[in-house]
Specification:
124 residues; 4-stranded antiparallel beta sheet; 49% strand
């Protein structure tokens, strides 16, 4: 069982930066694949970034070069550094985890555990 709690959301101006954090609990955190997803009003939940337990990272095309995912297994945390924010980045951001390393990182249905979400608003 893994429990996830996001923090760090808020309001940022276009071009600014924001750092989201996700604190996890459970003995399997360090061996889990972690992902960040987001969902804007009226839209489907979409993949943002993911990281396998061995450190391999994946990014959506829309955020590549601007966002960075990282994790600290000693603290059971995964972070999403958001730079050069754009208004289209506005959404509720969710942290997710799966202990099945064979699953696709970018697919929401791959994940067994989800946080409650944190709102990110980018003003133009």
């Amino acid at each position: 069982q893994v429990q996830l709690v996001e923090s760090g959301g808020g309001l940022v101006q276009a071009g600014g930066s924001l750092r989201l954090s996700c604190a996890g609990s459970g003995r399997t955190f360090s061996s889990s694949t972690m992902g960040w997803f987001r969902q804007a009003p009226g839209k489907e939940r979409e993949f943002v970034a993911g990281m396998r337990w061995i450190g391999t990272t994946y990014y959506a095309t829309s955020v590549k070069g601007r966002f960075t995912i990282s994790r600290d297994n000693t603290k059971n945390t995964v972070s999403l550094q958001m730079n050069s924010a754009k208004p289209e980045d506005t959404a509720v951001y969710y942290c997710a985890a799966t202990t099945d390393s064979s699953k696709l990182v970018s697919t929401p249905t791959s994940y067994d555990y989800w946080g409650q979400g944190t709102q990110v608003t980018v003003s133009s």
